[in-house]
Amino acid sequence: MTSQVRGAQLARLLGQWHSLPGRRRSPDYAALAAAVRGLLADGRLPLGVRLPAERELAQALRISRTTVTAAYRQLRESGHLASRRGAGSWTMLPGTHRVTSSGLWTPLDDLDMIDLGVAALSAPPQLLSAARAATEDLPRYLGGAGYHPTGIVELREAVAEAYTARGLPTSADQIMVTSGTQHALDLVLRLALAPGASVLVESPTYPNALAALAARRARITTHGLALDGAGWDAELLLGSIRQGRPKLAYLIPDFQNPTGHLMPADLRERVVAAAHAAGTDLVVDESFVDLPLDATPVPPAVASFDRHSRVISIGGMSKPYWGGLRIGWVRASAPQVQRLAAARVGVDMSSPVLDQLVAVHLLAEAPAIVADRRAQLTAQRDALLGALASRLPDWRVCVPRGGVTLWAELDGPISSALARAAEEVGVRLAPGPRFGLDGTLERFLRLPFTLPAADLVEAVDRIAAVRYGLDRAARPQWREPAVIA
Questions:
Q1: pTM higher than 0.70, yes or no?
Q2: 424 domain-assigned
């Protein structure tokens, strides 16, 4: 079933469309069409969604139907709308233009390159002592084969205790250890998603999740997030689940990557109820749940509202601890964990025992490590915000209450061009289209604050220098896309 946006919902997304730049020089229908194109370009209005009937939208916006008719006609002429008499109108992009979210390559070892494509911290000082302690524990495991498809029991118990401390009672039987969060997602998709099945994701979202879904040949639909406020439009998100009835929905409710939004508790509960009614499985990525900033309270886990084994939670050590420690996990029902283990043996048997032991010792020191991380990230975030306000004041940024990234709205649809230009001055960026589908999000840029404050300020200085000369720059040479994590 095709998802549909109602008149009141689209009116809310359009907001103050009368006050768009250039409004005084444009008739009402042109301004309305431009506003709809803007929503499509930002990813807030998904592609392939059916727009409200002309009369319905006219009533919602309190304008004449003639104005809406002319706006729809202009959208059809520009290739942003497809209509069929008696069936409605659907959003699209001109010429079926599509931008892939994959295409990874290994960054060059350039000491002068400031890499803002990877949103990950360097290792904490406690890693060395944890590694030494792990080697002392290792002899206990050397007498066996070393294969533990669900993970060693010490680590599964430690992860289960962390969930229980968050108010979600969990046993070790509900935990499966994986080789990172991305591996956890891949295994869940292998188990829960048949090729060609429908999946709902946020827009923007994590690029490597889109790559994993593409590998499963999933049919992806999107729910657009707003830059300000709560991010998720409750009516549109719940409507997408109820109407589209996707087989699976991939959500990042805790300091969403890349926007930093935090989903409120009441919406979490409603999403779980809607998913159960629609027969949709929820894959909840909790990679950033340990990194609230400014003493922001974190709502209950999405799985705490689950009574029907519809929610599968994934997380890992990469963001709070270190990306080089490839330890992730899945929290699900005990039968689901056993099915995941059976599917896993066709991929990689188990995660390294030594890495798991290191993780056990790091989790034992979690309060001190995570507190240091939060303080570090807060200072670096504020340094980045200050540099942007000083050097690029026309950019708009919603201050995240947690996580490790800013989602910046630029002063034009220049994200990809800016990323190419910044590479020439030693800054690697993650342009907006990498976080969406079909060439949208060109007015946005993800900026992680995981590097030292001095590097972030220097990066902004270099970006600002190329931004102001971008319109006069020569046509750039094509280059390979960069790793985004």
A1: yes
A2: yes
Question: What type of residue is 240?
Answer: S
The per-residue pLDDT for range 284-336, each reduced to its tens digit, is 999 999 999 999 999 999 999 999 999 999 999 999 999 999 999 999 999 99
Amino acid at 67: T
- Spatial distance between the Cα atoms of 225 and 245, rounded to a whole number of angstroms: 19
The helix (H) or strand (E) run that includes residue 310 is none
Interaxial angle between packed helices 65-77 and 28-42, expressed in degrees from 0 to 180 and rounded to the nearest 10: 50
State the residue for tokens 């929610």. Answer: 311
Cα–Cα distance, 12 to 212 (Å, whole number): 32
Q: What are phi and psi of 241, to 5 degrees?
A: -75, -45
Q: Please give the backbone phi and psi of residue 481, each rounded to the nearest 5 degrees, phi first.
A: -70, 155
What CATH number has the domain bearing residue 36?
1.10.10.10
Q: What is the rounded CA–CA span in Å between residue 399 and residue 178? A: 32
Q: Which of 438, 442, 433 is nearest to 482 (CA)?
A: 433
What's the pLDDT tens digit per position in 424-466? 899 999 999 999 987 789 999 999 999 999 999 999 999 999 9
Which CATH number is 174's domain given? 3.40.640.10
Q: What domain range includes position 317?
A: 126-365
Asked if residues 355 and 317 have their Cβ atoms less than 8 Å apart, the reply is no
User: Would you call 258 helix, strand, or coil by DSSP?
Assistant: coil
Q: Which of 336, 365, 394 is the last residue of a domain?
A: 365
Rounded to 10°, the helix 353-364/153-165 angle is 30
Residue 109, in any domain of the structure: no
